[in-house]
Queue: 4 jobs
Job 1
Amino acid sequence: MPPLDILFRHVPEGYEFLGALFTILGSLTIMVILGAWWSR
């Protein structure tokens, strides 16, 4: 996926897993917030 290549290009060596973790947590948080807003 090209967007991930752009993301990881300016992530220091060895921190790719942290970048992936924050990406996954961020999208999950956005989904939870949107879900809570949608179901109110």
Job 2
Amino acid sequence: MEGVTTGLLWDIFKHVRSWLANLDRAGESRKQQSIQALRGVITAARETAVYLRQIKDTGKHNHKTEAHLAVLWTELGFALEDLDIKKLAKRCQIKGKQWSNPEHYDTEFIHKADISLERMEQLARQILHTVNNS
């Protein structure tokens, strides 16, 4: 390596080391974002279950709560999509659309989409386990 000084090599080494450290931090940041989004799915499923229990107990719907659930599920869908967790993201988007307009999808589509709260939480837990062990 004619013409390359020790100082230049040292500077390149420091730059590469810094770049690798930043790459590792970016990976850790993405991992934490994934964990947060997946935990959000579990929390949303439980919040939704509580609301459904309230409807069952009182027989009354609350449009403000339903609007909140529509936004919550939709935002989770976007977050998961950004993290490339596409199958769960799509389910969240469907769940959000269903809360915004319960008549948008027919019963057969909802059944095929497999968006029960239990299934959503189960998928989130499975992916969370994978993320935590990577």
Job 3
Amino acid sequence: MKKVSFFVLILLFIASSNFAQAQKFQVCIFSGVNHVLEYSSEDDYVMGENDFPVTPAHTPTNFGVAFAYFFTKDMGIELDGRYHLSSKVTLQDPSDQDTVEISTLKHFAITLNFIYQFSKGKFRPYLVIGGGIDGVLGKDEAYTTKYGYPFTYEVPEEAFDFLTNIGAGIQYFINPNFGARLDFRYVLIFDDPNNVISFNVVVGGFLRF
């Protein structure tokens, strides 16, 4: 029995050593900001229905986690999840210049991406492209405008939208299994009636195993 146990331990040690050397898996935790460009236009104004049509640019913070599998030394796939917090914006009624300050909706994004790395040294730049879904979180909120009128910021009827993202970044390996990551992404959410464009920048740490 002791010989069998010893043999099993030897096999596990060899397997774990080979697994560690392969370094095919990676987990990354990160945080950053998401700069959302202005969307919709004054042409969408409808009195009594869409009094504040334009959502100005804003930059909420976000955080997330990503899991990657590298099937070659250069190429891999990544499952990325990001949670975006709300931020304050001021909406304006184009007919009388009335304004109201609101908190944007929190939302999350889940994407499946293809990654290509250019280097095998300590600094490894990469490109990333993929797509997924974006979902809004929250409920209708009641506000009062500058002129004293009631206004309800409503949650969209469709809670989920498709998105695509493309970007680049760089990973710095402090040692073969751990390092830091800087990531930039252009994100396009296919929303109705207007698409939403944002630029996402995050920094974090990763573990490769």
Job 4
Amino acid sequence: MKKTISVLSLAVATGVLIGPKFAGDSFQTLLEQQVEQINQIPGYNVELTRYEKNWFSSAGIAKISIEPSAIAPEASDLSAIQFETEISVDHGPVTLNNGFGLNRISWQQEVINSAELQEKLGITESLYSSKGQVSLFGSLSFMEVIPAFVIKDDATTINFSGYQSKAWTGNDGQLVYEGVTDALVIKDVEQDVSLSDLTMNMTADIDLEKIREYLLYDGEVELNIGTVHAALNDESLFSASNLNVSYLFETSDDDSKGDMTMQYGVDAVTASNLDLTDVSFDLTLLNYSTEFNKVYNQEMIKLMNHDSRFDPAQINQVMTDSLPLFLAAKPEFKIDKIHFSLPEGSFDSNMSLKLTDYQLEPAQMLSSAFWMNNIQLDAAASADKKLAEKLVALVAAQKMKGKRGITSSKVNEMAEQQAQMMLGMFSAQGMIKQEEDKYTLNFSMNNGEANLNGNLIPLPAI
């Protein structure tokens, strides 16, 4: 029995002594892999300028450079952004730098502020910091903090309330992320813009190997903004409440493709002569190819690393070369819903698009006749009668604005008359249908034939 206890004690002691070395090696390998991955992205460069690994801890400094012009051509006037971040790591099984814990590793990271930046932002702590750990059982948790700051110059003041987030992996291995910001306010002499109650929530099956290979993985992201408000000389120009953007991706059982859903919504939007409510815009892409995503992204990275000017001809060539992989999964595109309401009524529409034959030869991709004969398209729209009249009148009024000798009230009166005439003409021609208090439209294309509201239409006439 004593011998057994002695063997167990030796095993535990060996684990405590040797474990930190393995944890330190693993973290360094992972860090170097992430640096390599980031450096493949145009406009970003990370360099480990110092990394010292000891038995129980490691520490290093990474220099990060961001070149805005390589990310967006319109940002060519912006100079490069450079900063350094300091990383300190404790190797488990016992870690201390985030308080006592039993972990494989724990870490802290802080952006190194310059004295000039601290003075400009009015902060003493790091502009960005994070800390986290990987437990003995492999679960991950971390927190991020951006402190509140104020930027002032002669004309503009930016007031940011700060950002905090927390993340963890659940029992199913999914990463859960939650971030929140109370407010962002930008003011100058005449204008001010404010956003409040910003939150971001994410759940994803994060797999670093999949990310490196541009493969697909399940995930869901939701961004919410409580209010947005813009004013000029203290007079409200625009306001919106409860803005929501969500993204959901679900892969197939064999990971060869996935379904993507994007939803945009706003509870209410108020602006000059506009009072929108219940705004929704929902999109779905079914059967998005994993192989296409991998090849297309790899080729685009190569292209942008070679030449960051975003040559449209080269980008189109990459898309054309990758298109057969995209079509091989038989994708379908849907606008599930476009909806909004005004005091005059509501508008609704939807659309679906797919192909009859996905087996394409390269020459067929350039044939408009082939595409027209293989597209399956279904679309529908409806609007309450008073709303349709208002929308058409707004278009007509916009065309008449600025004409000499016509007052604004006269423009609106003429526009309303034109709207009723135009809707009557469209209805008589069969382009729209009037059903009680609604105008509706139904359009489809199938096997080279087009149908509008039950009437066949010669395709050349479209």
